[in-house]
Inverse folding.
């Protein structure tokens, strides 16, 4: 498989041509990820490789079980609570940037698509056996079902930047 990576940072909020993606389950997200990894050529529209995105999705799921290393600033936490319901129902908008330290932790530097897929698959399997109840850095307390919905929305956002060519 050939993957085209973007070298310069792009403003992901302004990226044109993203796929319209929606997942009702993490199994649907995993099937889409498997299809992308199996594709001969995937063009990435954002700032991360396919391997990085898939590993990131796995890291997020594992963190919802194990806990996160910090919390968002109080202003973000207050604002996040006002949009939590919309995000759980309708999904996330592109363009949110993590602080640089968090970005390095959340997106491994060099991960092949196959390695990223395995991390994502293992995390999904783990959330079938363990409850996701760790506090979200911005939203605070979430039940397992809300975490599950959030991970479906999160996967849809990131995988919308991956185009099969």
């Amino acid at each position: 498989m050939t993957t085209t990576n973007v070298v310069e940072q792009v403003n992901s909020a302004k990226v044109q041509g993203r796929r319209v993606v929606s997942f009702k389950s993490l199994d649907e997200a995993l099937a889409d990820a498997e299809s992308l990894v199996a594709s001969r050529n995937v063009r990435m529209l954002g700032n991360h490789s396919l391997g990085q995105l898939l590993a990131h999705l796995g890291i997020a799921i594992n963190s919802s079980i194990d806990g996160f290393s910090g919390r968002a600033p109080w202003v973000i936490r207050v604002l996040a609570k006002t949009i939590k319901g919309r995000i759980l129902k309708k999904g996330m908008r592109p363009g949110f940037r993590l602080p640089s330290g968090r970005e390095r932790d959340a997106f491994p530097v060099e991960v092949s698509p196959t390695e990223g897929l395995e991390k994502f698959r293992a995390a999904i399997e783990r959330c079938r056996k363990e409850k996701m109840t760790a506090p979200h850095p911005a939203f605070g307390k979430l039940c397992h079902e809300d975490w599950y919905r959030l991970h479906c929305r999160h996967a849809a956002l990131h995988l919308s930047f991956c185009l099969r060519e």
